[in-house]
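User: quick one, fold this
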Amino acid sequence: MSKFFSFQWHITDDCDQRCKHCYIFSENNCKTLDSMNWEQIQDTFYNCLDFCKVYDRLPYFYITGGDPILHPNFWELLKLLKSHEIKFTILGNPFHLNDEVCRELKSLGCEKYQLSLDGMRETHDWFRKPGSFDITLEKLDCIKKAGIRAVVMTTVSGTNIEEIPDIIDTVANKADVFAFARYCPTSNEKDTNIEPLRYRELLQLCDKKFKEYETRGCTTYFNRKDHLWTLYEYETGTFKLPENVEKDMIYGGCNCGNCHLTILPNGDIFACRRVQNSKVGNVFADRIADVWVCEMEQYREYSKFEKCSKCELKAWCRGCPAVASGKNGNFYAADPQCWK
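Assistant:
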């Protein structure tokens, strides 16, 4: 069990983009924008600290939205984190960043700032808005100059899978970290439109590119984030099953139910933001420490995984339950892109 516990905290839905694959607007384009007020933010923060005290964990916050910088109490929240010596990562947009903003973020304890690239210029701007691709690349330098690690995340779907190698070439030696994860279908879309072997081909191609860049001394860390990397590396011999492991112990794979949860601007607690039906409580009414041992238990029943429970990699992989859930609503269903 990780000493750290991560809270993905959406403080506001307010955003100056309407991305086509955004979870906030995927179900209802007329959604009212939720946002926590300052009192709710403080109560939520201390609720999180209470949880960590009860379970002897160290808190880590991923502050996001919407675009969190648009929240009127954004800077007050960062100062609150600073006063408790808690570092954090921002998941946001590039549009409101400049040298002064980035320096202030760094002074308050921001370790990483994550931006998205979901294709090359035409595709990315189609997903988001015109000009977004160029300004995203421009602001990577702004973030790094302030001493903050610049992270680029790509959401892979059937729409952009062919462009992933070009994205890698674009961000190599520009971003400090690059990773990709698969698009989780919503209730209106039931498939990522990627066949399992096609996804394996992508991992193989990316693995080759990553190793070529690493051999040349590339400064970008290529984070093999998707848990199906474990299956790929098991097959290629990079990952070997450890000896003397405890039976029924979980050593890796999806963090849902282990060391992560999500808090939305309306206070709803989700086991995972990418699992659409995973609400387990509300931070305004519930003590997170109680939710963790009650409602969250349903996401730790590893024998229920329909396919993974029979696999020798169960303790380290399990694919992405969020993608499985997006397809048929079943958290424990087989990962649609698993080729094993």
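User: anything notable?
Assistant: The two ends are 27 Å apart (CA to CA).
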